[in-house]
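Progress note, sequence design subtask.
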């Protein structure tokens, strides 16, 4: 969603509050595409401080389904979004950016880009469905949280493969 801010750039010391919606249906990054499960409309407050800077403030929550890193079951993760940005109004249009990212297109604020950046910064390194998640079987792919599989549990150490070959050859003789 884009918010038109032309009246904010021209009105010194003006403050307004606008109801905005998150337009993201999925969070698309290099890690993959993750569906947005819940997003609520929220209020963004804009304040022009003496035609020098534009302050943007707001809070919301976005819930995204992320696969567990061990068993690949979807985990709904809530991302609290706290927006507190400042745009310098004294520079050129090309310099009107927030944190080095371009959220402004002319006099329009791209709310989805703003939300995307906040989610990206708080993206977890590892997501688990539960702390004791057993993961999936390396051989058959069964979810070990649901039931035990019938695969052989012991795997020989691949570093010992050469020695294992010697033992196999000596048994043949």
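Output:
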């Amino acid at each position: 969603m884009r918010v038109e801010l032309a009246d904010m750039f021209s009105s010194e010391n003006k403050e307004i509050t606008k109801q905005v919606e998150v337009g993201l249906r999925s969070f698309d990054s290099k890690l993959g595409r993750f569906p947005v499960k819940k997003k609520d409309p929220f209020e963004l407050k804009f304040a022009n401080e003496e035609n020098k800077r534009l302050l943007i403030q707001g809070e919301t929550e976005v819930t995204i389904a992320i696969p567990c890193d061990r068993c690949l079951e979807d985990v709904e993760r809530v991302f609290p979004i706290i927006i507190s940005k400042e745009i310098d109004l004294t520079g050129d249009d090309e310099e009107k950016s927030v944190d080095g990212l371009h959220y402004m297109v002319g006099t329009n604020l791209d709310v989805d880009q703003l939300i995307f950046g906040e989610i990206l910064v708080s993206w977890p390194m590892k997501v688990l469905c539960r702390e004791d998640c057993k993961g999936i079987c390396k051989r058959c792919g069964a979810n070990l949280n649901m039931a035990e599989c019938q695969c052989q549990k012991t795997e020989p150490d691949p570093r010992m493969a050469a020695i294992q070959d010697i033992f196999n050859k000596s048994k043949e003789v």
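The two ends are 75 Å apart (CA to CA). Work on this subtask will continue into the next period as scheduled.
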